[in-house]
Design brief:
Helices cover about 50% and strands about 15% of the residues. By secondary structure, it is an alpha/beta fold. Helix 3 links the parallel strand 1 and strand 2. The structure holds calcium ion.
């Protein structure tokens, strides 16, 4: 009986494959298949093969190429190989290349609302951001923001919760930001500026030299995995947490709208699913690698790990509310994106308090668990 059924199934599959192949041969003659092959280029804002960020873009290009069996092959370029990091969006908008990979807040000079897509101070964690894109209207809002730059948007990786930054003095009260020269981009930078600091934005590759020369005396980059790679421990003593300014940061895959519109539906689905996979893989890489890097910073490089005091965070939170309110009130699209985030964050927080947060507390209660 088992043997008979197996034979039946095998026969059915073989027959089906033959029928499909025959139909394909008659519907799509060989020259048409050859013409159906596309070669796309992806520019990125990341140093080539940079851990987690550049390698995430590499995986995206590789997945699309393999899933489409080469019908859409994507070659990935690091910052500066075709255009400098911050010109990646222009290159995609004007059709020089078909797609790019970076972070939404890099495009705030083009469309202001893009920075709220990336991260908001005291906003949402990575899981909540993904839920917002998928089920909270975030994808539709982001598409409207990117349409203004002539692009289709996909979330394409997430750093998870970042670190608060590197300092060479203790940060005890909000007054400690007075006169500080800090590299901190985006909305976090606006908040720190309102707290009295001088804010500088520099690409990652210039951070170590800027700290060494005294051009800046504090900075944030990403988290242990990336900060260790840049050697920032050589020029700063205190490593503060948490990254209130980037509770999670979305990476973006942006695609020229003409190139996107021209794709057949199956290739569109492949690009979409490849981004869904990369979005999760990049976050997983940060979760998997950050702790080992943090232990190396503390134990091998003598970094002094400190939590921001609650009093200081409370003040930063209050200032964040004022700054976000002021900034978004000047721009209707920013305001619409922000209102959507405010509403989704409120729901996520209510559920998160009785789920993730409650569980984190339960896991830390004083009991012996499985002995390693
Ligand atoms: Ca950062």
């Amino acid at each position: 009986m088992t043997l008979h059924r197996r034979n039946f199934v095998t026969g059915a599959v073989a027959g089906g494959a033959a029928a499909t192949a025959a139909a394909a041969a008659s519907t799509f003659p060989k020259p048409a298949i050859a013409q159906d092959r596309r070669e796309w280029r992806m520019v990125t804002t990341w140093p080539k093969n940079f851990p987690g960020l550049g390698t995430g873009a590499n995986i995206l290009g590789d997945l699309i190429t393999r899933m489409s069996d080469g019908r859409l092959s994507v070659t990935v370029y690091g910052a500066g190989e075709i255009v400098p990091a911050f010109e990646a969006m222009d290159a995609v908008s004007n059709g020089t290349v078909e797609m790019g990979h970076g972070a939404p807040y890099y495009w705030k000079g083009k469309v202001d609302a893009s920075q709220y897509i990336a991260a908001t101070p005291f906003g949402m964690n990575a899981q909540e951001q993904n839920a917002w894109f998928q089920y909270g209207g975030g994808q539709e809002l982001a598409d409207r923001v990117y349409e203004q730059m002539g692009c289709k948007f996909f979330p394409s990786g997430n750093t998870g919760t970042q670190m608060g930054g590197w300092f060479n003095k203790e940060m005890n009260t909000i007054a400690d930001y007075q006169g500080l020269k800090m590299r901190i981009p985006g909305l976090g930078g606006e908040v720190v500026k309102a707290a009295g600091a001088t804010v500088v934005n520099l690409p990652g590759g210039e951070l170590l030299a800027a700290m060494q020369s005294g051009a800046i005396d504090a900075m944030e980059w990403v988290g242990p995995y990336n900060d260790l790679a840049f050697g920032i421990y050589q020029v700063a003593q205190y490593y503060y947490y948490p990254g209130w300014h980037e509770p999670a940061t979305v990476l973006d895959n942006f695609i020229n709208l003409d190139a996107w519109s021209e794709l057949p539906d199956d290739l569109k689905a492949i690009v979409e699913v490849a981004n869904t996979a990369v979005n999760q893989l990049v976050l997983g890489e940060f979760v998997a690698r950050n702790n080992a890097a943090l232990q190396s910073l503390i134990n091998e490089h003598n970094v002094d790990l400190r939590p921001f005091p609650d009093e200081l965070l409370t003040e930063l939170g209050r200032i964040s509310g004022e700054v976000l309110g002021d900034l978004t009130s000047a721009d209707p699209l920013s305001s619409e994106v922000m209102q959507s985030i405010v509403s989704f964050r409120s729901e996520a927080r209510a559920w998160g308090n009785v789920s993730e947060r409650a569980f984190a507390g339960a896991r830390d209660l004083p009991f012996d668990w499985v002995t390693p």
